[in-house]
Design goal:
This protein is of the alpha+beta class and 165 residues long. It has one domain (10-163): Nuclear Transport Factor 2, Chain: A (Roll), CATH 3.10.450. It contains 3 helices and 10 strands. It has an 8-stranded mixed β-sheet with strand order 2-1-5-6-7-8-3-4. The protein has a two-stranded antiparallel ribbon with strand order 9-10. The longest helix has 24 residues, at 23-46. The chain starts with 9 loop residues before the first strand and ends with a strand. The relative contact order is 0.17.
Length: 165
């Protein structure tokens, strides 16, 4: 399946791999990105910021757009501080589940989209139950996939200004 702007790119949708005649390398890349997303979820579920950050570009080329203020981060150092802030809002370790992961690969670039569900207990003892949409852009560097761009969003009801799931 061709992805927009990626001539010859292939996609995974709803956790099922598609196939084409030249799938061996692309399938390996898709599997590597799926493994990266699994490592990312495991790192969050363990509360391990160092392991979370190993999935991202380690320099100032990393770009991240979030749904909460400060909405934009540039560079791994700034983004690491965002994760520190994220974990500081929870009693114990929050949990994340990633579903509906779709992956498109073309050479050394790829992107994915997923639904991510975060649960836990905030510092005041209130339950946290949030679902967001995540789009990631990846670069393959030295044979390893890393997230170079991440965009987190929620659908919004424009009349109320509130999240609309």
């Amino acid at each position: 399946m061709e992805g927009p702007g990626f001539a010859g790119a292939r996609s995974i949708k709803n956790d099922h791999m598609t196939t084409s005649p030249d799938t061996r390398e692309t399938s390996a890349d898709e599997a590597a990105i799926r493994a990266l997303e699994d490592r990312f979820a495991s790192a969050i579920n363990a509360g391990d910021i160092d392991a979370v950050m190993k999935n991202y570009l380690p320099d100032d080329n990393l770009v991240f757009f979030d749904v909460v203020p400060r909405e934009h981060y540039r560079g791994a150092g700034a983004y690491r501080k965002d994760w520190e802030d994220f974990f500081s809002h929870f009693r114990g370790t929050p949990k994340i589940a990633i579903t509906d992961l779709g992956i498109t690969v073309d050479g050394n670039l790829a992107f994915s989209h997923s639904i991510q569900h975060v649960t836990g207990t905030d510092m005041h003892g209130h339950p946290v139950d949030r679902t967001v949409r995540v789009t990631d852009g990846y670069r393959k560097i030295g044979g390893h996939w890393l997230i170079a761009l991440e965009h987190v969003s929620m659908p919004v009801d424009l009349t109320t200004g509130k999240a609309a799931w």
